[in-house]
Amino acid sequence: MSRKSVPPVAAKPSPLHPRNRHQQRYDFAALTAVCPDLAGFIRLTPKGNHSIDFTDPQAIKALNRALLQHWYQIENWDIPAGYLCPPIPGRADYIHYLADLLATANGGKQPAGKRIQVLDIGCGANCIYPLIGSSEYGWQFVAADIEAASLASAERILAANPALQQKISLRQQPDAQRCFTHIVQPDDYLDLTLCNPPFHESVEQMVRGNQRKWQNLGKWDEQKEASAEQLNFGGQSNELWCEGGELAFISRMMRESAGYASQVYWFTSLVSKQANLPLLEKVLKEVGAVQQQVVAMAQGQKNSRFIAWSFLNPEQQKIWRQMRWHSRV
Fold first, then answer.
1. Residue 64 falls within a domain, yes or no?
2. Which domain holds residue 208?
3. Residues 100, 292: Cα–Cα separation, whole Å
4. What would the DSSP string read from start to end of 129-177?
5. Is 217:40 a contact under the CB 8 Å cutoff?
6. Which stretches of the chain drop beneath a pLDDT of 50?
7. Hydrolase among the record's keywords (predicted)?
8. Does residue 71 form part of some domain?
9. Could you tell me the CATH number of the domain that includes residue 208?
10. Are the C-beta atoms of residues 264 and 195 closer than 8 Å to each other?
11. How far is CA 178 from its chain centroid?
């Protein structure tokens, strides 16, 4: 079986994916209409615009709750204090570009509905990718995490949204060194896997990164005496760092994925550092991936990307699509 590279879905980054619902400035009037508690966090900027303090975890949480309710009809979203509170627009971009990845071999049409099965590796307490993916495309998700507390939080979110309980199932990973073992069952066939891996290599690197965030926001003087936990914008240690950082984590994931070659159509992972791509592509060559591509994304001034790989050749993928996406059975 020969290894084949295919052209990237997006040649160059754009501000946000065209289908992303968050193209415009936040409509705080509409958001506070569905989530009144957001009103207490809204402030006027020096330019006279409404905004929130993006260094305030409670303000960010209230904004996320309002965005999810307004745009995705997700009720009562919440996470415990100290857990990662993700920016919704960027998370939605990953989902939309994944849909495009499937569409490249489906006549340009994004496959939707419960036939599409997706695994989120490390769903966290926020469960954000399954929430957006199931709401936007009707996909079925397996949301996996190593932390019981994160899964308990995700369970509370699903309990508040009964319609999503049939679309999202939760599974706990007992081994922090594994991504697929213990989670992917023998009768599972997944059209996509996705992952937002921990990208710091150590607690010290994580703290330095947080210091740069505060400096960029002009608030470092206010935080010089704060602890590492206070400096952080949210996130538990397993969400933010691991030994070897994202390069080690994704490399390990890629090597493990070879054992599930026939059960997954596309494996994917976000990659925060572009410099890691050549090394990751080398790992894919070593493990025998047949197809791979890098999909470019951008949110504002930030460029990002994910890497996708498959062990199925084009003919095998065609058979997969015929049996799983187009079958009327």
1. no
2. 4-24+82-325
3. 15
4. HHHHHHHHH--EEEEEES-HHHHHHHHHHHHT-HHHHTTEEEEE-S-TT
5. no
6. 1-2, 6-13, 200, 202-211, 213-214, 217, 219-233, 235-236, 239, 241, 329
7. no
8. no
9. 3.40.50.150
10. no
11. 18
